[in-house]
């Protein structure tokens, strides 16, 4: 560069976007020195460099290329003149060099390829498939055909990249030409393989061999760098035997793959992947057409038919390839009729997301939420559903298929246009990211320099990093939103008069789509949708906006039909309430939480249908936090005191209980509570209910007169252990203590009447789950008095108490009624349940005898001991008896064992060195899973059961609540059997062995 032109060049280069102006100035000077008669570093060049994605990278590549021309004594002067005079050439060259380090290296090795970028026809040319194939085929007769193929492929790739970067080529066309390049390269590689094979094996059997492109190559939407997915189909020549022909075909196929993927002095093209073939990598590389068809008809999974959507013959025997396409195509379009189609499709999507490392999800262009795969997956699923009866939506190219779905009315016009724009933008980002180093990646870089280059290559020149990230996030959000909505929004138009450009599905098409999405009764579902969305009121308008997302959330559950029906029922009850639909519309989490809750099962739905206003608490996750015992008792007692009649008072208490049961069920189903917290919370609700109801019963019996006695309720069993489940009875004992000077018989009569009235009031029919009180664990069982004095309990336990009663008292916790009486009862029973010297060996033998009898006699007829969560092998009874035996033996010397809670006692045993931590963890895991399952069964069915459901839909729903994804019921059952088997083995050692 002449000194006069230099001026303050360093400052100018900074303003023009050079990151290292000093280095750039040195390189510009070196360029001028290479060709003194025709200076390279012109003003036009500097301006062009500043407009590229990365001026420093472009200048570095230009220097390397010019030095290569100079070193090989090529016509550098002609290059310099063209660079100065031809604006189009200069722009194409620097745009390529500024965006692609890899193509800059290519031009450094093959500098005379600059002539391709100077081709005046390049800007307006659109090479046909035949043109591309013919140019690549010139490598066949070269001295080193494999290297020649790579050089010619890169030359054509260079021409395409220049058109892409400098001429504004649409990403659709770029992807199509890349697929054509791959097809031509496969054809050339196959011809090279044939020449080499038959030169080495002149007597080998010949064959017909076709290469079927799959994936993005098959769809003519290939990336700059991608595996090229293929299948191979072969046939013998007419009248020739099959086996030798297949042997030759297999060797030709393997050689073709090797020619494309091998690394040579000229690099590599791309890996050829045949893993999509029948049986995957375990199957033969090459099959006959009949063998392919037999596999697909008998063994193929849904994803294999989805893959066949893009199958396209690209090389080899064209007639055989076409026959393959026609005959497999007939199978593709019946895939949606196969059993398990919907489960398979949903499972495929989950597997894709699950396989992304957590750290990569937010920067994944292809597989992350709102990524390319979301668009492709949505389009392909709609094709599989509607392409059965509509041949107009069967294109293997995503954007073409999306346009077809829009034109034919399966996708709304606005949605289709927004989705296509987002897909084009994301594909353009993917192309630019890969073009930089010609490496296969779908990860958005996090380095600012890389983001700056990427942004500038896409036209964001003012604030490239900020504007690029904002546009990317916007498009990804649109994709995610439309992916959720795409299947469901058109269902409304099938039954409602929605104006504008909305898609209108026929009723039959709507039923097909609902069936594909997992609805078992699509006709009923359509009726519910129609009832919810009909009319032109504000209510129906909000429902039309809500329903697409709600239908999608319902479809994620094992029973979407039940969710939709419940939503209609709740909406009918609350639809005219101002806050209900507004809350669902404006609080996205509220609507999603409600949808999952409604589709979870009967229990929460029944509670909500009896008190729909409880929906309000779903708006804020903080509202789902369990109430404290004091707050709950205060509210229940106040609600009861506002009523005069005892029935009304207890109804008010039960209304609060119903609301709190819904709160805990909603929090549980939302994954906010663990198993122990659910048990503790349900116990707190039961304590509040019984305590406040006991106050009402005592007032009713007293009739305004002074009460002659104090009363308390002793919680027993799971109630006393603070381990209630949704379907548990409240096991109790009643105790009273006459006031000083009161007649004991009158006091006992009062207490008995109060206890009886309590049971009557809580058992009255009502709009909430019954409060079942079971007093059978009292002394002498049903034959004994319902209520005893503290002295009577003391006398009974002193004279008649058996070891099983001491064991039952391990779970006794006085929780309701007079606090002093509760404490006195604890002091009475502690010496019985925690004997001073531990339990005797005779009593241990008696406990084991009773346990053996329970195991043999109490399991319900027909129940499977392997899947009965309470009495089955390794179930709750096994674990609890084991822990209770430990307490009877050791609690006298280990105070921390003196607890009514199973897991608390188990932890204390570990801390005291009485239980091996590994064995304790085995028992804890089994106890928690069995407890969770019992609660889940109640949530699903609305009625208690102790056995794993045999009905597949119920089992799927229970598994879903227990944290297993849809379609994994078998894994759930297997896990339960494995976990309880380990627990049973541990119980055998700890309980039965001395």
Identify the notable features of this structure and list them briefly.
disordered N terminus; 5% strand; mainly alpha; 5-stranded mixed β-sheet; elongated; 61% helix; 994 residues
Descriptive overview:
The structure is a single chain. The chain is mostly helical. Helices cover 61% and strands 5% of the residues. The strands form two sheets. Strands 1, 2, 3, 4 and 5 form a five-stranded mixed beta sheet that branches. Strand 7, helix 36 and strand 8 form a beta-alpha-beta unit. The radius of gyration is 38 Å and the shape is elongated. Mean pLDDT is 90; it is low at 1-7 and 496-503.
Number of helices: 45
Q: What characterizes the major β-sheet?
A: 5 strands, mixed
3D shape:
elongated
Give Rg in angstroms: 38 Å
Q: Could you tell me the mean pLDDT?
A: 90
Head-to-tail CA distance between termini: 96 Å
What structural class should be given to the helix and strand makeup? mainly alpha
**Annotation, overall tally of beta strands:** 10
Helix content: 55-70%
Hey, roughly how much beta strand do the residues contain? 5-15%
Low-confidence stretches: 1-7, 496-503
Secondary structure elements and pairings:
Blueprint: H1 3-6, H2 9-15, H3 21-34, H4 43-50, H5 55-71, H6 76-85, H7 87-99, H8 101-109, H9 114-117, H10 129-137, H11 145-166, H12 171-200, E1 207-213, H13 215-218, E2 228-236, H14 242-261, E3 272-273, E4 286-287, H15 289-298, H16 302-308, E5 312-316, H17 318-332, H18 341-354, H19 372-386, H20 398-407, H21 413-437, H22 448-457, H23 464-485, H24 489-493, H25 507-516, H26 522-533, H27 538-555, H28 560-574, H29 578-586, H30 588-598, H31 602-610, H32 629-641, H33 646-669, H34 675-702, E6 709-715, H35 717-720, E7 730-738, H36 744-763, E8 773-774, E9 787-789, H37 790-799, H38 803-809, E10 813-817, H39 819-833, H40 841-857, H41 876-890, H42 902-911, H43 917-941, H44 952-961, H45 969-992
Parallel strand pairs: 2-3, 2-4, 7-8, 7-9
Antiparallel strand pairs: 1-2, 1-5, 6-7, 6-10
Helix pairs in contact: 2-3, 3-5, 4-7, 5-7, 5-8, 7-11, 10-11, 10-12, 11-12, 12-14, 15-17, 19-20, 20-21, 21-23, 22-23, 25-26, 26-28, 27-28, 27-29, 27-30, 28-30, 29-30, 31-33, 32-33, 32-34, 33-34, 34-36, 37-39, 38-39, 41-42, 41-45, 42-43, 43-44, 43-45
């Amino acid at each position: 560069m002449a000194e006069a032109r230099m001026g303050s060049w360093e400052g100018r280069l900074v303003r023009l976007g050079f990151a290292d102006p000093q280095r750039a100035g040195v390189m510009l000077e070196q360029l001028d020195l290479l060709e003194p008669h025709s200076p390279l570093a012109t003003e036009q060049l500097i301006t062009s460099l500043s407009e590229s994605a990365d001026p420093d990278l472009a200048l570095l590549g230009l220097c390397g290329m010019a030095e290569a021309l100079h070193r090989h004594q090529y016509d550098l002067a002609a290059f310099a003149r063209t660079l100065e005079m031809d604006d189009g050439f200069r722009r194409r060259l620097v745009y390529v060099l500024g965006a692609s380090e890899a193509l800059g290296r290519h031009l450094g090795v093959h500098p005379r390829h600059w002539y391709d970028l100077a081709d005046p026809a390049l800007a307006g040319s659109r090479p046909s498939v035949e043109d591309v194939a013919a140019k690549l085929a010139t490598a066949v007769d070269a001295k080193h055909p494999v290297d020649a193929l790579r050089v010619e492929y890169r030359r054509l790739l260079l021409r395409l990249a220049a058109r892409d970067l400098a001429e504004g080529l649409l990403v659709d066309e770029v992807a199509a030409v890349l697929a054509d390049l791959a097809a031509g390269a496969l054809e050339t590689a196959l011809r090279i393989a044939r020449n080499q094979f038959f030169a080495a094996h002149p007597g080998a059997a010949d064959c017909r061999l076709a290469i079927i492109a799959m994936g993005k190559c098959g769809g003519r939407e290939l990336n700059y760098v991608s595996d090229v997915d293929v299948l191979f189909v072969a046939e013998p020549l007419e009248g020739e035997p099959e086996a030798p022909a297949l042997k030759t075909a297999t060797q030709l196929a393997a050689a073709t793959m090797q020619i494309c993927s091998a690394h040579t002095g000229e690099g590599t093209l791309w890996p050829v992947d045949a893993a999509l073939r029948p049986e995957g990598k375990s199957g033969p590389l090459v099959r006959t057409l009949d063998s392919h068809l037999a596999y697909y008809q008998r063994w193929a999974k849904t994803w294999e038919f989805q893959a066949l959507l893009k199958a396209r013959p690209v090389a080899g025997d064209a007639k055989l390839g076409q026959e393959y396409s026609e005959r497999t195509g007939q199978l593709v379009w019946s895939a949606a009729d196969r059993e398990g189609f919907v489960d398979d499709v949903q499972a495929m999507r989950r597997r894709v997301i699950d396989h992304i490392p957590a750290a990569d999800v937010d920067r994944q262009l292809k597989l992350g939420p709102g990524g390319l795969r979301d668009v492709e997956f949505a389009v392909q699923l709609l094709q599989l559903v509607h392409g059965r009866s509509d041949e107009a939506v069967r294109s293997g190219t995503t954007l073409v298929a999306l346009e077809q779905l829009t034109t034919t009315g399966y996708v709304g016009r606005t949605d289709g246009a927004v989705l296509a724009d987002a897909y084009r933008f994301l594909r353009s980002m993917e192309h630019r990211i890969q073009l930089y180093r010609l490496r296969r990646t779908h990860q958005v870089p996090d380095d600012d320099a890389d983001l700056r280059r990427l942004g500038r290559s896409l036209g964001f020149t003012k604030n490239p990093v900020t504007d690029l990230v904002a546009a990317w996030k916007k498009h990804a959000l649109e994709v995610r939103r439309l992916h959720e909505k795409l299947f469901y929004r058109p269902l409304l138009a099938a039954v409602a008069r929605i104006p504008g450009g909305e898609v209108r599905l026929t009723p039959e098409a709507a039923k097909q789509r609902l069936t594909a999405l997992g609805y078992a009764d699509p006709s009923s579902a359509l009726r519910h949708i129609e009832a919810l969305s009909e009319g032109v009121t504000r209510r129906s308008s909000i429902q039309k906006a809500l329903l697409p997302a709600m239908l999608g959330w319902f479809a994620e559950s094992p029973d979407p039909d039940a969710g939709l029906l419940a939503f209609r029922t709740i909406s009918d009850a609350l639809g005219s309430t101002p806050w209900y639909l507004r809350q669902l519309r404006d609080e996205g989490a509220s609507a999603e939480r409600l949808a999952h809750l409604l589709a979870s099962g009967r229990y929460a739905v029944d509670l909500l249908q009896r008190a729909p206003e409880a929906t309000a608490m779903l708006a804020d996750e903080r509202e789902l936090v369990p109430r404290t015992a004091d707050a709950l008792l205060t509210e229940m007692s106040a609600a009861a005191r506002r009523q005069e009649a005892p029935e009304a008072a207890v109804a008010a208490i039960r209304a609060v209980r119903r609301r709190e049961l819904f709160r805990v069920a909603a929090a549980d189903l939302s994954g906010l509570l663990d198993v122990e917290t659910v048990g503790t919370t349900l116990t707190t609700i039961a304590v509040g209910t019984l305590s406040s109801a006991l106050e009402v019963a005592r007032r009713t019996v007293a009739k305004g007169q002074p009460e002659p006695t104090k009363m308390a309720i002793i919680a027993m069993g799971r109630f006393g252990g603070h381990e209630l489940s949704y379907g548990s009875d409240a096991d109790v004992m009643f105790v009273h203590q006459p006031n000083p000077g009161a007649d004991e018989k009158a006091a006992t009569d009062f207490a008995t009447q109060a206890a009886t009235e309590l049971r009557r009031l809580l058992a009255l029919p009502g709009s909430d789950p019954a409060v079942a009180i079971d007093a059978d664990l009292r002394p002498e069982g049903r034959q004994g008095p319902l209520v005893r004095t503290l002295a009577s309990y003391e006398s009974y336990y002193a004279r008649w108490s058996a070891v099983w009663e001491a064991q039952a008292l391990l779970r006794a916790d006085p929780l309701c009624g007079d606090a002093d009486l509760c404490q006195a009862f604890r002091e009475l029973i502690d010496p019985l349940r925690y004997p001073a010297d531990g339990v005797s060996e005779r009593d241990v033998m008696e406990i084991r005898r009773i346990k053996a009898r329970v195991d043999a006699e109490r399991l319900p007829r027909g129940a499977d001991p392997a899947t009965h969560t309470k009495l089955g092998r390794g179930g709750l009874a096994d674990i609890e008896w084991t822990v209770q035996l430990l307490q009877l033996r050791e609690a006298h010397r280990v105070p921390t064992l003196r607890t009514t809670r199973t897991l608390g006692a188990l932890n204390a045993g570990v801390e005291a060195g009485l239980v091996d931590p590994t064995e304790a963890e085995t028992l804890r895991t089994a106890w928690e899973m069995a407890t969770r399952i019992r609660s889940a069964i109640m949530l699903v069915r609305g009625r208690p059961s102790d056995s794993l459901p045999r009905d597949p839909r119920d089992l799927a729903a229970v598994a879903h609540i227990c944290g297993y994804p849809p379609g994994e019921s078998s894994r759930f059952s297997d896990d339960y059997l494995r976990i309880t088997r380990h627990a049973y083995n541990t119980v055998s050692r700890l309980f039965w062995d001395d």
